[in-house]
């Protein structure tokens, strides 16, 4: 009886979260329910840790080397973990997936800003941008035909100064979002498509 009751309680709790969070995403009710099921299949305790996420991510992408996969996975985890408490909750997971799958360009770039700010100082430097794009390109190379490192570096060398109008070498959030959204060449290689 004890176990059964705790299961019923758990399921009620989940539905409560879903009815609160679902409407704040781009998902229809049945889609939010689908993603909730996926989440709890992998994370029964409802708290996805960074280590777990890095492991799932590593199993999913078999092409790139382990070091670059781990670095990128950590950054993606950070972008999901909005309140920065070290785990991704159902709420954060649904919001992240909704942004990635259904968000408009501005929403996706807001998400990408966290991904790109590797040292977490609230600014994206040219090195931050180059680093993350290299990692992502590395993952794509075997799967969907990424571009060469030289091509990638040339795009960043050309596009970054156009966005960095003050010439400080670092972009604030607004500057990053506005600038990248105007750059077709950068949008094409961003991990938000
Ligand atoms: Ca969190
Ligand atoms: Ca930074």
Provide the fold topology.
Blueprint: H1 2-21, H2 29-42, E1 48-49, H3 50-60, H4 66-80, E2 87-88, H5 90-102, H6 105-116, E3 124-125, H7 126-144, H8 149-163, E4 170-171, H9 173-182, H10 184-189
Antiparallel strand pairs: 1-2, 3-4
Bound molecules: calcium ion (2 copies).
Residues 81, 83, 85, 87-89, 92 line the site of one calcium ion.
**Count of domain modules:** 2
What gap, in angstroms, lies between the N and C termini? 48 Å
Q: What is the general shape?
A: elongated
CATH homology-level superfamily of the largest domain: EF-hand
CATH topology of the largest domain: Recoverin, domain 1
Oligomer: single chain
- Roughly what percent helix? 55-70%
| CATH architecture group name of the largest domain | Orthogonal Bundle
Counting H and I runs of at least 4 residues, what is the number of helices?
10
Structural class: mainly alpha
What string gives the helices and strands in order? HHEHHEHHEHHEHH
Q: What ranges have pLDDT less than 50 throughout 5 or more consecutive residues?
A: none
What is the typical, i.e. mean, pLDDT? 90
Query: In total, how many beta strands?
Result: 4
- The strand line-up of the biggest sheet is 1-2
Pfam family, one: EF-hand_5
Organism: Branchiostoma floridae (Florida lancelet)
Domain EF-hand: 68-103, 104-139
GO molecular function, one term: calcium ion binding
């Amino acid at each position: 009886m004890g176990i059964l009751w705790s299961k019923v309680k758990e399921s009620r709790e989940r539905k409560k979260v879903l009815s609160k969070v679902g409407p704040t995403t781009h998902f229809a009710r049945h889609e939010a329910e689908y993603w909730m099921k996926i989440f709890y299949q992998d994370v029964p305790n409802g708290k996805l840790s960074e280590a777990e996420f890095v492991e799932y991510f590593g199993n999913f992408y078999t092409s790139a080397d382990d070091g670059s996969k781990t670095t990128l996975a950590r950054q993606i985890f950070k972008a999901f973990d909005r309140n920065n408490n070290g785990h991704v909750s159902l709420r954060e997971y649904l919001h992240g997936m909704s942004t990635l799958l259904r968000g408009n360009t501005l929403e996706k770039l807001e998400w990408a800003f966290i991904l790109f700010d590797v040292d977490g100082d609230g600014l994206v430097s040219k090195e931050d941008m180059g680093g993350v794009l290299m990692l992502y390109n590395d993952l794509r190379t075997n799967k969907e035909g990424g571009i060469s490192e030289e091509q990638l570096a040339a795009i960043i060398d050309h596009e970054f100064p156009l966005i960095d109008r003050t010439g400080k070498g670092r972009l604030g959030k607004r500057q990053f979002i506005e600038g990248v959204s105007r750059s077709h060449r950068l949008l094409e290689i961003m991990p938000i498509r």
